[in-house]
Amino acid sequence: MSKIRQLFCVLILFASNAQAQLHTDSIQIATKRAINYLNSLSEKDFPSYNQRLLLVYMHKKYKLVQAPRKNILSISNLLPEDSVVYCCYTPLIGKKVKVDEEGLLRIFTNSKGVGKLMLWGIHSGKLPLDSCLAEFNCIEGARDMMHAALSLYWAGSNASLSQQQIIQQLRVKYKAEFIATMNLEKTITDTGMEAILGLLFLKERERVSYNWIKEILAAQQANGGWSWTGEQDEKPHPHTTLLAVWILQLILHQE
């Protein structure tokens, strides 16, 4: 190899590494600003308790640049319907389930839709997948399909060969819906981010455009949040902000 060509290759490698470092730095800065925004919210500012739980989950999993405030999981204002979430979702943050296996199965049996699927995803070693297959097939729309894809992401490969074949068919169906949604949606809307997350949960990272990530970073507001529609003059929303942080962490950690 000639010296000129060697120099050319070195310059390309240097530029690539510099771009990757800039990309990493941008994500870390955006994440820190987002956590500052989320930490500024009170309990009543979060539409549901499981969104506060999600913030702690992401900190535990990805070691966010800044921890959520210590009292963010306070249950002083916990709604009765959220008590199931608190009991059954706490394994995500390293806490033991506060209901026994019989109670967990009863809650699972009485659950429907994406709630049932997500319970299975968290406790896939204890709950039957066969009871979920009908629910998986009935799911429609990118938003619910994202939650279904999340349950598969959490569960991993805990399925029989015949079940895996059914799950693969579901993956194809969900992926088509996520791609169709991104062809219609702006990247930085709440629905657009859910479609991107769905692709990442299905391990379809190559389908996630680098331009989408740049658009998400550019849409962050001065206060650190993201609005539901992506508009700068609209109030930031904790749900959309959590979605953005999750996307950025999955990209940063190459999951």
Compact summary:
The protein is an all-alpha fold. It contains eleven helices and no strands. The two termini are 36 Å apart.
Low-confidence stretches: 7-20
Helix content: 55-70%
Q: What does the overall shape look like?
A: globular
> What is the SS-derived class?
mainly alpha
Number of helices: 11
Portion in strands: under 5%
Spatial gap, N to C terminus: 36 Å
Radius of gyration: 20 Å
Overall residue-averaged pLDDT value: 84
Strand/helix succession:
HHHHHHHHHHH
Mind summarizing the main beta sheet?
none
Total strands: the figure is 0
Provide structural commentary.
Helices cover 62% and strands 0% of the residues. It has a domain at 28-77 and 141-252. The two termini are 36 Å apart. The longest helix is centred in the first third of the chain and has 37 residues, at 3-39. Residues 7-20 have low confidence and may be disordered. Helix 5 (113-122) packs parallel to helix 7, helix 7 (142-155) runs antiparallel to helix 8 (161-184) and helix 7 (142-155) runs parallel beside helix 9. It has 255 residues and is an all-alpha fold.
